[in-house]
Amino acid sequence: MDSYKQIVEKAEFALIKGEYNFCIKYLRPIIESYPVSSKEGVNLRTILITALSGINKKEEAKLFCKELLKSQDYKVRENAKYLMEIIDSPEIKKPENWNITIESNPNLNKTSLTTYLSYSKIKKSELEELKIILKTFIQ
Fold first, then answer.
1. What is the 3-state secondary structure (H, E, C) of 1-51?
2. Contact 69, 79 (CB under 8 A)
């Protein structure tokens, strides 16, 4: 089993990358190993609440908030109340112009950028790295 520090690093990294489902699947099996009365348990539940909220599983997030509301620590209870307010708040509709859509052009010569980069004054190691990145976007 990973150490607490490793668990937090993996979970927080997943949150940063927007991989909420991974974060949830990773934390759920081990969450009971860290009681809500411990600092670690509070932290992991807060991360889990954030991940659940990120994929709109508000009812499940509320269950973990309710656990935190029972804490002996005043600050933990106050933070849990704040999280509940956020979870219970109405969703705000985003205007369509807030979203960026990138359209693919089927007539685009997919090798032209790679060819250009091959002849530019870029270090070979940087060129290889760019080619790898480009391949992920081109496919």
1. CCCHHHHHHHHHHHHHCCCHHHHHHHHHHHHHHCCCCCHHHHHHHHHHHHH
2. no
> Where residue 95 falls among pLDDT bands split at 50, 70, 90?
confident
Query: Tokens 């480009």 sit at which residue?
Result: 134
Residues 48-59 pLDDT 10s: 999 999 999 999
Q: Which residues lie below 8 Å from residue 110, measured CB to CB, with a gap of 6+?
A: 138
Nearest to 138 by CA among 113, 116, 119: 113
Tell me the whole-structure pTM to 2 decimals: 0.65
58-69 and 39-54 helices cross at what angle (nearest 10)?
160
